[in-house]
Amino acid sequence: MKPISAITASDLKQLRYILHDIDDTITNDGKLLPESYAALWELSRAGFKVIPVTGRPAGWCDMILRQWPVDAVIGENGAFVDYFEGDTKKRFFHPAVPKERLSEKLNEIKEACLKEVPGCRVSKDQSYRICDLAIDFNEDVHLGLEAAEEIRAIAERFGAVAKVSSIHVNIWFGDYTKVGMAELFLRQQLGEDRLEDKVLFFGDSPNDEPMFARFPLTVGVANIRPFAESLSHLPAFVTEGEGGFGFAEAAKLLTRLKKG
Questions:
Q1: Cα 173–177–178 angle (5° rounding)?
Q2: Chain centroid to CA 25: how far?
Q3: Are residues 195 and 87 located together in one domain of the fold?
Q4: Edge to edge, what strands does the sheet with 49-52 contain?
Q5: Measured distance CA(215)–CA(200) in Å, rounded
Q6: Is 19 exposed, middle or buried (0-12, 13-18, 19+ CB in 10 A)?
Q7: Are residues 129 and 150 in the same domain?
C-alpha cells in the first residue's frame, strides 16, 4: 500500500465515480464526522459522482440518498441501489435477490447464532432491512473477530452467504455482492464501460477486499492496517488518518488534483 500522497493527477484523469464504504471508513466510533461529511460535499462539488456502498439497511439508504450529497446508494451488501431519475426516487434490485425474502430461513439462522454465540445480538437496524440479517458482534456489543467467524460459520452451515464487516456479520441468500452490484449498476443503469479508469473505492475492512481486487484505484483508511497480513488484495493507497479523518484527508487531495 502506497501512502495516499503518492496518488497523482494522471491516476485521476478519467475518474468519475467515488465509491465508499460507510462504517469505519467515513465514520469514527459510529459517528459521521463533520470532516467526512464536508468531504462528501467537496467531492460532489468537484464533479465526482459519489456512491456509498454499504451493508446498512434499506431504510438508512433512503435517508442517505435524500440527505447526503450522493448520487446513489448501494445497500444491504449489493441487494439493491437507491437512486434518483430526475425527481423520481427509484430502487433497482439485483436480479439474484430471491423473489421470496426467505425470512423463515434467516430466522432459523438468527436463533442459531443467538444460541451458539453468547453475547451476540440482532443489529438494532434490522427492522429497516428487507433482504438480509445482520448479527451485531462489534457495534452495540464487543465480542471480537473470533465471534464473528463463529457467526459466519453458522450462517454458511445453513447455506447462506455471510460477510464480516467491522461491526456486523451480514447474512443473506442469493448470489450477489457489493462489487457485483456496483458493476451492474454502473454498466446497465448508467451505461458506463472501462470502469477501471473511472472508479475509485474507499474501504476499511476484509469485506471490502473484493472491491480492492476489482478496481485499480482503491484507498484504505488507516484502520485497514491491522488486517493487511490477512488480505490477499490490499488497497493501492492508504491514508494516515483513520476512518472519517482519513477519508477527509484523501478527499482534499483528490479535489485539489482534479482542479489542477
A1: 135
A2: 9
A3: yes
A4: 2-3, 237-238, 217-220, 199-203, 17-20, 49-52
A5: 7
A6: buried
A7: yes
Domain that holds residue 148: 103-172
**76 and 120 belong to one structural domain:** no
- 36 near 252, Cβ under 8 Å? no
DSSP letter, residue 6: G
- What is the model's pTM? 0.93
The amino acid at residue 67 is Q
203 CB-contact burial (10 Å; exposed 0-12 / middle 13-18 / buried 19+): buried
Shared-domain flag, residues 230 and 168:
no
Q: CA 191, CA 203: separation in Å to the nearest integer?
A: 25
- Based on the domain organization, do 207 and 234 belong to the same domain? yes
- On the 0-12 / 13-18 / 19+ scale of CB atoms within 10 A, 181 is buried
Helix (H, G, I), strand (E, B) or coil at 25: coil
Residue whose C-alpha cell reads 488497497 in the numeric block: 235
Q: What is the arrangement of strands in the sheet containing 161-164, beginning at the earlier edge strand?
A: 121-122, 133-136, 168-172, 161-164
Residues 91 and 7 in one domain: yes
Instruction: Write the CB contacts of 103 (distance below 8 Å, at least 6 apart in sequence).
Output: none
Q: Is the pLDDT of residue 101 over 80?
A: no
The 10s digit of each residue's pLDDT in 166-201 is: 899 999 999 999 999 999 999 999 999 989 999 999
